[in-house]
Amino acid sequence: ARNQIPEPFTIKPGQTIRFDGRSSSTQDVASTSGAGRPVTSTSTSTSSSGSVKTTVISKPVAVVPVVIPPSATTGTGPAGKSPTGWTWPSSGILIGKFSSNGSLNKGIDIAGDLGQPVLAASDGSVVYAGSGLRGYGELIIIKHSDTYVSAYGHNRRLLVREGQQVKAGQTIAEMGSTGTDRVKLHFEIRRQGKPVDPLGFLPRR
Question: Where would you find the membrane-spanning parts of this chain (predicted)?
Fold first, then answer.
């Protein structure tokens, strides 16, 4: 033995004892196993005397999941269609608006060119096609439901017949000036037989 202590290895007061420097193992400061636990980084150094020093160099950082919300989408149906399914019966300048008093106008008037396409404003069935109603010229009436019908007046030529099913945007007539003094389309929407303002149903443009 280095200290030369004979058996039974009795140590006397004041006797000097020498020890060899020994290396020791380093213990982990923190475990990072498992997703979402705090992450800790460490550095370990060994001094010339063999002792081990462990220093924490960063604070625990919590792993926070980032949630990206789906992009919001808004839709108003096909282009040119209102949320209620109505579409403009023709292009052109609005020259007459709905009025329930004074100079009564039961619908709207759209100026255009002679022969310009007139379109069904919504899906439905043709319940009238002719010129028997005074003041409307060549007229088409389409039933869309038990509540709503639409009317298209002053056409030059009618392209659908009574009983025919039509789709929104389908050409049903050619714009004209029958029963009036200029080329235009007179368009009405009626709810349970009463005229309502079409601009409250058609998409903005």
Answer: none
Residue 9 resides in a domain: yes
Segments forming the whole domain that contains residue 30: 1-66
The tally of domains found in the chain comes to 2
Note whether 110 and 159 are same-domain residues: yes
The pLDDT mean for the chain works out to 76
Residue 157 lies in a domain: yes
* Reported pTM: 0.60
Q: Are residues 156 and 100 in the same domain?
A: yes
In tens, the pLDDT along 12-47 reads 666 666 655 444 443 443 444 444 444 444 445 444
Residue 38, Cβ density class (10 Å: 0-12 exposed, 13-18 middle, ≥19 buried)? exposed
Tens digit of pLDDT for each residue in 81-106? 555 689 999 999 999 999 877 568 99
